Amino acid sequence: MASKKIRRHDLIQQVVQERGGVSVGALAEMLGVSTQTIRRDLDNICDGNGLRRVHGRIELSMDRLNTPFDQRAGTNIVGKRAIGEAAAAEIPNGSTVFISLGSTPLSVARALVRRRELTIITNNLSAAMALSEEVSNRIILPGGELRLPDRDFIGEEVVEFFGRFRAEYAVFGVAGVADDGGLLEFHPAEVRVRQQMFRNAQTSLLVLDHTKFGRLAPALGGNLADVDRIVTDRAPGAEYTDLIAPLSDRIIFAEDAE
């Protein structure tokens, strides 16, 4: 099998594991191929991989189906808690903060519950709910359709939403980091939202656990070198030493800090 096809099959399985299910059309748009190509791919990967085809979609099989966001939030709990605490330590009371979608930004939101009088601007409903427990906070959400099961808002209207605000801090995660430091997402719309947050914030805080280094996703936008502060649980493998070394004054290894 051609290497390009193998990589595409790996990406399809990764997206489904992340989201629980995705349409053929969305996969074709993400990967820049025709829907016919995706359907041929699904013929090859559905059997024996815990995946099934349902009405123009590919989903996790019933015996493996769970809320994908909750699955991600429940992995590497210790590392994500450490990341959340370290990132929250950078943000003082009274700050205005963008918080992106994702389970690691949610860990930051949970750590921020001890702050007061924050203005939170987010498309992450779970983060908003976590921070709503402190009544001195102000929380601003975009309108539109809530994407389930991830409990977030995505799309061009969300890009416009973030374009109407300025913040002191932008807290965001990524789906993966390429070998050259490129920041990867599963969908171009997620890249556009993240980049809008980045442009409109004074300080950018990328939060990610070490497993995101080398993890593939099809949509590229930005680079580690562009980020003001990077918070991860621990150093990635030795193969990323040359990538990490120039960032030493901007990267926090949260488990070491503890």
Automatic annotation (TrEMBL):
One annotated GO molecular function: DNA binding
Pfam family, one: DeoRC
Keyword Repressor annotated: yes
SMART domains: DeoRC, HTH_DEOR
Alphabetized SUPFAM superfamilies for the sequence: NagB/RpiA/CoA transferase-like (SSF100950), Winged helix' DNA-binding domain (SSF46785)
Protein name: DeoR/GlpR family DNA-binding transcription regulator
InterPro entries according to UniProt: Carb_Metab_HTH_regulators, DeoR-like_C, DeoR_HTH, NagB/RpiA_transferase-like, Tscrpt_reg_HTH_DeoR_CS, WH-like_DNA-bd_sf, WH_DNA-bd_sf
